[in-house]
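Task: complex structure prediction.
Instruction: return structure tokens for all chains below.
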Amino acid sequence: MPILTRWYIRTSFLYLLASLLVGVAIATRSQLGLPAVFGALGPVYFHLFLVGWITQLIFGVTFWLFPKQKDEALNWERTGWLAWFALNSGLLLRTLAEPLTVFNPGSIWGWGLVLSAFLQWLAGMGLILIVWRRVYTRDRTRR
Amino acid sequence: MPTLSTYFVRLALVHLALGFTIGAFMLANKGVTFAPWLWRLRSAHIEVLLVGWLIQLVLGVAFWIAPRFWQEPVRGNVTGAWLALVLLNIGVWVVAISTYLVLSPALIVAGRVLEASAVVSFAWHLWPRIVSREG
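Output:
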């Protein structure tokens, strides 16, 4: 299993745990008297789960299982690391900036969301670029 | 990878690119409002990513890696799988466009029926391949 895959899979499991903990915090907010900011974590909860856990896990496994091209023009490992950094920094920035923007509209945190959106989009395009080149047929398995 | 899987996976990646792009604009717009109408794409964003990306990827990989038969045709009758590819993609777009343009609820139902039909069609293909090594 490539090192990149291990990092993607391990990081994805951290997001699974984080998303479930956020889910618990949202569900028990009123009983535990948690700050109102926890009430704005709904979108963060879903995206930690669907982007941080599922999408990151899928790409980690894809790097490992999908067939490699013999003439890899793109340095896929380097792109994969850059995408890992962009995806995770973008997602963590969103986790912080989204609830803070709800409670401080028009603040600098709004630009944090813009940066988060750009980082996650960049990561997504990088990952798609890597995997796209690995989706091809070989004559013996074409059927 | 078989030809049909390449179609499934590449279409899934196209939907991922579209879903991430819509999502990025929506998130940026949440931080610094520049196009309030973007919020109307929320349902399309969810549809494109959950069905167009995730489910489509799963079907494509399942067609590739599920056990094959010893004799030709090694993947059995593939008509159901090809039909699923067509039905799923039409279904996603019918639902996504209908929710964005706020068209008739009947169109959303039609899109969902197409998606469900795709799953039934794919299951029709895959069911005989879900076997143990002993058969």
